[in-house]
Amino acid sequence: MKTMNFMIGLLITLMALFSCNDDNDVNAYVGWGTVECRSSQYYIRFDGAGTYALADSALLVLHGAQRPGQRVIAGFTVAKRQDAASLVDVYQLYKVLTKPIFQNPSQEESDSLGHDRIQILSAWVSGGHLNVRFRYMSAFYTIRPHFISMVYHSRALPVSDVVDLEFRHNAQGAPCDRWRNGYVSFPIPELLNKASSFRISYRDMGGAVRSIIVRHHPLADDVSVSVDFPVDGEEIF
Fold first, then answer.
1. pLDDT 10s digits, 22-39
2. How far is it, in rounded angstroms, from Cα 115 to Cα 132?
């Protein structure tokens, strides 16, 4: 009798699941975007994919990502219903570190930004931001936040020139015994918006100074990039 009751319960559960899937025909996507807020309604302006209103902003608030201008990686679904054509449900969210490019730091400020080792995995321009995926050494448990910065020492440049930037890391003396990955987005200021490309220098994990070139096409469509959610992140600033 117990076995039969179990089988009946399982059958009812499966029928309910299949009916839910039939009634909610949706497609799932993952993308980079920037948070916007108008008249108490939150939106995400996805890079190269338009702006969508959020059906529920709870996940934004839970992650502290509701500030307008905040960059996020969002997993979302768009219901195939005419009355919800521009409405999305966010089911997964990663708050991307979002901060301005530090222009012309003093010597004291520059020293505080650090010269610790870091690895740039990829960098690209989209959504009006310079985005960097990076890797660094940290500890399993640490109470000292790492600081990530992008530095620009301004000088007179033709608009078509390469702009030199420094990607900086301050580990604040925290112990380092494991790899961690992270993302950061820097809004591109008007001063740099006409540059043809950015040359980003950084101190790699071997201590050598390296650089990468990131092409910048202000009038071109946003590039498409592969996206994954960091699973071992920690709070960085």
1. 445 557 889 999 999 999
2. 17
In whole angstroms, give the CA distance from residue 81 to residue 87.
10
What whole-number distance in Å separates Cα of residue 103 and Cα of residue 101? 6
Instruction: Give all domains of the chain, ordered by start, each with its CATH number.
Output: 24-97 (2.40.50.140), 99-215 (2.60.40.2370)
Tens of pLDDT, residue by residue over 181-222, are: 899 999 999 888 888 899 999 999 899 999 999 998 765 555
Report which of 44, 30, 50 is spatially closest to residue 222, judged by C-alpha positions.
Answer: 50
Q: What is the DSSP string of 4-32?
A: HHHHHHHHHHHHHHHHHHHH--EEEEEEE
Length of the chain: 237
In one-letter notation, the amino acid at residue 125 is V
CA distance 196 to 212: 14
Q: Position of tokens 């925290």?
A: 174
Q: What are phi and psi of 20, to 5 degrees?
A: -65, -40
β strands within 86-128, DSSP E = 87-98, 102-103, 119-126
